[in-house]
Amino acid sequence: MGKHDHSYKLLFSHPQMVRDLLQTFVRGDWLAQVDLDSLERMSDNYISDDLQARADDIVWRVRCGDHHVYLLIEFQSRVDTFMALRVLAYVALLYQDLIRTERVEDSDQLPMILPVVLHSGTKTWHAAEDVASLLEPAPPGLEEFTPHLRYVLIDEGSYDDDSLARHDNLVASLFRLEQCREHDQMEVLVIDLVDKLRKAGEASLCRAFATWLDKVVLKRLSGEHTMTINLWEKPTMLSERFDEWEARFRLEGRREGRLEGRQDGLVEGLLEGRREGEAAVLRRLLEKRFGDLPNPIRERLRNARFDELERWAERLLDVSSLDELFAS
To answer: Which of 35, 127, 130, 285 could form an S-S bond across to 150 if both were Cys, CB 3.0 to 4.6 Å?
Structure first.
């Protein structure tokens, strides 16, 4: 499993994400009977008869009327032509595991398994959604033996940003950020995501989103990591330091623009641009924390060396006043 799919597995290990996914992106009358509070994470490391382990997907169980429905969610960052065949195999393995672990008695009927394929890749999904579509036409008299199994496809790229923005939940925010390629818009979306996470109040879900942002989204945009997991480990730390991260993210966009626009490799110009960018970021952080800055402080920021700016930025969260920050 790649880093992208693995980070999705972390995200959808939380019931809130599965709840949002079902309510917003899965259709069907059966959902009216679903008790979303009954969502229960099941073991997804089931083993086939030939001792081949399966741990690439995630399995949830939810009460639907008088029965349980198993949700088998498969994460795909690439289009797989034979996805329907793979899903057929995964469903069979899960049924075998339910029998083996005695969740289903010999006299019982097997529960319903709903396979869901969540595609986050940039290419439009074009693979068959029913295993029968992969088979040659059956000879006369064999039609009834043709296997049929359809999965629910959720293709993130099929939703435009306007339609996603109408849904106020974490999964819609996830999809919007996946599709975003602009630094300025990314900043707005991240701020909105963090606000939702604060309201959710789940530290482990914050960490899962931090991993995804760090390993997938920010790396895709800049090729560098501009965020650390520590910022998300406690809600208080997130509240205190998100403004700093937000400003550094904006700075990263400026740096990238300068690097692209100066192909001649003028080192002096790049360093000066970086120093000015650091000064602008630090000024913004100081204004957010201490209000309007006195003119002498503004002048000091404009004329400061790069190492001074970095030192002040590192000390910002440890001081309680401007005088303390700029003390020798």
So the answer is: 130
Q: DSSP class of residue 124?
A: P
- The strand pairing partners of 114, in sequence order, are 71
28 contacts: CB under 8 Å, gap ≥ 6 = none
Say if residues 149 and 130 touch (Cβ distance below 8 Å).
Answer: yes
In order along its 328 residues, the chain shows pLDDT tens digits of 555 667 888 899 999 999 999 999 998 999 999 999 999 998 766 655 554 555 557 999 999 999 999 999 999 989 999 999 999 999 999 998 888 887 777 667 899 999 999 999 889 999 999 999 999 999 999 999 999 999 999 999 999 999 999 998 999 999 999 888 776 677 778 778 877 887 887 778 888 888 787 777 766 655 444 444 443 444 444 444 444 544 554 454 455 445 444 444 434 444 555 567 678 778 877 887 788 888 888 888 888 887 788 788 777 767 788 888 888 6
Exposed, middle or buried, 94 (CB in 10 Å: 0-12/13-18/19+)?
buried
Measured between alpha carbons, how far is residue 303 from residues 88, 298, 308 in Å? Answer: 66, 9, 10
C-alpha–C-alpha distance, residues 297 and 181, integer Å: 36
- In DSSP terms, 42 is beta-bridged to 59
Burial 281-300 (b: 16+ CB within 10 A, else e): bbbbbbeebbeeeeeebeee
Does pTM top 0.70 for this prediction? no
